[in-house]
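Support request, please re-run this one:
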Amino acid sequence: MLLLIIIIPPLAFYVFTVSETLSLKNLDKESYDSRMGDSFLFAIIMFGCLLLLVTPFMISINNMFKRYFEFIKTLSADDIKKLISLNEKENLIYQYTPSYILRDHTVTFFTMFRENSINFNDIISIDVRQIFHKGYRAIIRIETRHSKYQYTLYGNPLKVTNLITEALTANPKIINNKNWNY
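Re-run finished. Output below.
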């Protein structure tokens, strides 16, 4: 999709300017060559500028997927079954990019630039706030012995239910707002 963003606008600009130049009947050869050269030059400059703008996003997305794959390779068979069962219930958009992955009594949250693993035994409380505006979104606040974390989960409430269930199974002492699932 990002490659299309890089290619389509310069190509559309070039086609538009060339067709406009071809529609002009009273152009001499020098003006015609100048307009065609300028059309090509501006399309190349636009392509280069878009490439410079989109490349950092492509690199960060590529790095995020590399981290996903490296992490998934370390999962046990039971953890993979949990991941697959959770992903099967997801919307197509969120199905192959889970917000978190459970492994050995830990939860690992993935963001664009890093990943963060939290052991369920270190968690003191989990606070969930749901927002239903243009889709489902839940803000998860996790307090551990050492620090506080906040993550936003999109998609459906099953992610949150699964996270709370797994956390309470591993550590029943976790304090959570039980009235979040209304």
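The mean pLDDT is 87. The chain has two domains: 2-71, 76-180.
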